[in-house]
Each structure stands twice: as structure tokens, then as C-alpha cells.
Amino acid sequence: MSGIALLTATKATDAATTAVGLAYVPGIYEANTAAAFLFRRMGVADGLLVTSFCVVVAIALVTEVASIAVCARRADAHLASVVRLVGYGIPSALFAAVSVYNVTQLVAGIEAAVPL
Asked: By CB count within 10 A, which of 17, 33, 76, 95 is most buried?
């Protein structure tokens, strides 16, 4: 799987779990104040789409520019793959972790709302 595809998939999962939590679980709120402001202005769905797109584009741009810079400075250019691994891998791992956390919050919210 390419780095951009992995990044996009993990960010989409983060956005989807955020959207479900904000829409259906009482007490869930967006912790990022800038994103929360945007959600109030644009709505949750549009705000998540815009922020997710901007985040993926920014990470891809920084990663690819850094990879090109490494290729230009080193004749062997083998470090470009390391730059891409770090540039796409770390944010993807973060978005995956956030998605897992979001799911735990969704489950906790559902368990609290439905008496056993």
C-alpha cells in the first residue's frame, strides 16, 4: 500500500469515527478548538471533509518535498524511502491510534446510553 493511500485511509477512519461520535454520542465534543470552530461554521460533515483533505495534502506535500530534497542531496537516494516511511508512517499511526480511541469512546457512550 502506498504511503498516501495509507494516510488517506487512516485519516478517513479518524474522520468517520469523529463524525459518528459527534452525531450520536451525548457528551462527545471536538477537542481541537480550530476544528470545532470550523464544524460550527460549516457543519460537521463539511468541516471534517475540508480539514481531512487539507491535512492529507499538507502531509503529502511536506513528505514529498523532503523526499525530493533528499534525492537531490544524495547520489544514492536510498534515504528517500526512509523519509516517506517516516513522513507517512508516523501520521498514519497517529490517525489509527486516534480512531481506536474514538471507537472506545463510541462504545463507552453506547454502553452508558443502553442499560444492561
From this structure: 95
Tell me the C-alpha distance between 22 and 87, whole Å. 29
Distances (CA, A) of 68 to 77, 87, 97: 9, 13, 29
Nearest-CA neighbor of 38 among 28, 25, 51, 26?
51
Residue in the block written with cell 472506545: 104
E-strand ranges in the chain read none
Q: Could you count the other beta carbons within 10 Å of the beta carbon of residue 32?
A: 11
Tell me: the pLDDT tens digits for 57-107? Answer: 999 999 999 999 998 887 777 888 999 999 999 999 999 999 999 999 999
Q: What is the pTM of this model?
A: 0.89
Question: Nearest Cα to 7, choosing from 67, 85, 77?
Answer: 85
**Beta carbons within 8 Å of 63's beta carbon, 6+ residues apart:** 3, 83, 84, 87, 88
